[in-house]
Structures
1.
Amino acid sequence: MLSGIIEIDVHGKNVEEAFKEIRKQLNRANASVYRIRVIHGYHGGTRIRDGIREEFGYEREPKIKRITMGDNPGITELVLREL
């Protein structure tokens, strides 16, 4: 964990495996965590990227305040609280 950010690398995982890992980290996240960074890749990770918005967006997960794109298209960030 990097100063309040949990990074999850889901390269090589299918959508179900990626969601399982994201849920595991969401359950583990304590008050010091403000962001979960999911590294899914750009070419093969688009199904995971799109699935994250479907599965965890639109207030479906109470811990997640919003979902943003990362510094590059292969990263999606789940914002748990504002810094």
2.
Amino acid sequence: MPETDLKQRIGERFREVNGDHPMTGADDAYVSARFVALEKLCAVRGRDADEVRRLMLGRRLPLPGYLRSDGAEMVPGDLFALADEAGGVELLEAWFTAHWADPVAGKAEWDAYLSGQYVCLHSVTPAAIRRKDHLTAAISASEDEPDAGSVPWSERLHALVDELDVLEPEFTAYDRLRFGGPTSRDTCIDAVRARFPRP
């Protein structure tokens, strides 16, 4: 399949997953500062970009995190790191899903990983995904704790928020469009800090 067809199919799949939302200049700048064009990453890593696109379309590697407004497929700089750690692309799914004791949860996370939407983490690893899930759940449940509002509670809450802050990037306006509302940074970091200032 010619490169233009593969690139077009990636674009179509990307819009199926994320919806068709325009990227602004600010979105492009944010993405360019934090991600790398697939073509450039493949050139640096000695990979064939079309073969990588085939792996994406075949659900062996994640889709790009963003399509810049010039059409560039923007991917994390460590796109191949998990496959390398797993011992190759063909072993990646089994290696990845094994990080969850529940096979159903593992499969759900694998599907989420393949969507390319894990732009909510600086580094997308099973450990980081699990930690983010734990932190957002703990922060969301914190108001129901018996000592809610006390100084020790506030210190525990802010420790959780600070840890999540390290894991997550800032996000861009495009993310709020494709995710249909506030991001986890909006709800679990910025809103919590505004509502419960440090003691």
3.
Amino acid sequence: MNKKLLQFSVLILLFFFPTISLAQGDLMIMPKRLVFDGSQRSQEINLANTGSDTAVYAISFVNYKMTESGNFEQVDSPEEGQRFAEGNLRYFPRRVTLAPNEAQTIRVQVTRTGNLEQGEYRSHMYFRAVEEQTALGQEEAQEAEGISINIKTVFGISIPIIIREGASTTQINLSDISLNTEGENPKLSLVINRSGNMSVYGNIKVDHVSPEGVTTEVGMVKGVSVYTPNTKRNFSFELRSAGEVDLSTGKLRVSYSEEIGKALATKEIPLN
């Protein structure tokens, strides 16, 4: 094991009740997603405990569907057009104990891919904190009619594991772009439309182009996905870098690009 600090934004915080939200915690994971596209049969996930206490994590698979608003809901059976990847994945170890500032590698392998149909398969690897003598997370005692109740919160993080078989037929376009200038920061809303056999994951960038042709970046959001079988995702965010431009003139250029920079869709809207 190597002792190192792995920095990035973790994806999902799961409580003991079925609520899903974004969070950061003592368990750091890199990378935040794995994609097997035929060129690799084995990849590694690096875990690091950035907390001050020893932590134990059990590792398993869960399956989610994405809503049009980008939230995740756990499902037991795939929806139409959705395929789970867990039946074609194996990993080791299935449980880890990490001392403070300690790191460990999880190896993930693809198996039994000979009969896979063309398209995409997705499951999420779930790292659940295992309670020892002291609960991991918060513990709160409540009393109701003389009965003492201990509520213990168990934390976990999940990351998507994706298998892709065959060539991608996916296409993206942007629609329903609107700008709301009320409030402290202007807010842009749009719909990302997806068609084809695979999901997309990328960055949204917004540039303001003045009447004189001067281009200024006014907004950027990284890591925006649209997972199969969804055909669209509604998305809104604030343009926090727009303070020095005049949003009543010129135009906005909105682009959705892969992480490596390839533009998947671009659209311009006039502001006057």
